[in-house]
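**Fold in tokens:**
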Amino acid sequence: MEEELLSRQLPHSLEAEQAVLGSMLIDSRCVAEVIGMLKPDDFFLQLNKDLYETIYTMFNFSEIIDPVTVLEKMKQRGVGDDKTADYLMQLMEVTPTAANVAQYAGIVKDKALLRNLAVAAGDIRETVFEGVGTAAEIMENAEKKIYALRQGNSGDSLQHIGMVLVNVFERLDELSRSENAFPGLSTGLRDLDKKINGLNKSDLLLIAARPGMGKTSIALNIALAVAKKTNKTVAFFSLEMSREQLAMRLLSNESFVDNQKLVTGKLSEEEWTKISIASSALSQTDIRVDDNPAISVAEMNAKCRRLDNLGLVLIDYLQLMTSAGTGQSSNNANRVQVVSDISRALKIMAKELNVPVICLSQLSRANESRLDKRPMLSDLRESGAIEQDADEVLFIYRDDYYNPDTEEKNVAEIIVAKNRHGETGTVKVQWLPQFTTFADREWKHSEG
């Protein structure tokens, strides 16, 4: 019985843990390499965990790391005594060579992942037997737990500020070396990028407009720009248009062949050549399209989690979505609650997936009755919660839609009504109706 209990211990490798720590004590150059791979919780033995946490703290403060300084620091932190000195000597003796530290750390990481997986499996099993919630909800929670492990997050959301600061400094270092003038992904429209600082990870960006203003067009513009420049996967959930319609729009956008000609199929030889080149270029990108018209946020989240190289999620559009719990409802008051739930779930999804999520939204007709028909935040349909949850809210306005005699023909205003990363204001871009796409206006120094 005793042997059986010992064999059922959670996975770990004390030899690998000791070899990692021994390597760091023998050669302090190993420390930077290991810090990037392991967290203190990846160690199984408490003494090893305390020792690694001490080295981790010393590294953060750029202190000299050797057996003497580490021992002194452990005593200061109350996790070391006279016996600890013998243990440090033992660690250095049992370490074959510091040159293999990455392999040792890999073993420790692997065993920690197996332990976390065992704990998650136990939690899932317990939830199943408790029987609280529907099967779909239990499965959603199970997927979340496994996804968190895949992302290297054991699920402990309370994190010491020192650990957070390490991530912040890494990000600042990354930004300082980047050639981009802004931190996020490019939308493909440089004036807009400058205004909103690009598309940032874990942000929920809302693009709202009246029908016919070009919401889907700008979403496709952005999808194409991100897919081409980053080689990342772009997930496009289209609740309104079919996959084929979207592909047709992308083809027109990429080939600069009139969209109307693509719809009718009346193409010249030159246009056939253009679309075949564009088709080949589009096939090189990783844009995934889902045209299920009754998809919920939970289903979107589950599908996105399975994508390894996800860079951006786009949803067209909010008012067509169903809430997992209540579904579509004709009751207006209830619908407000449903939209609030959806917008909250979208923000949580953006944080979980750690990618920008762009959601399109319809506007109410309130602007039609005003003299100035430019949209305002109060025009957002059915929910003020959308405004609260979104990190940025963008409106599209084309004056020639309402005033055919306007001087600004085929000019679109992108009104940044809310912006957590900078100031609000308006950016003007060129609208190309024949290709249903947006482009930067000709750059003029006077506008810069």
Summary: Residues 1-177 form a domain with the DNAb Helicase; Chain A fold (CATH 1.10.860.10).
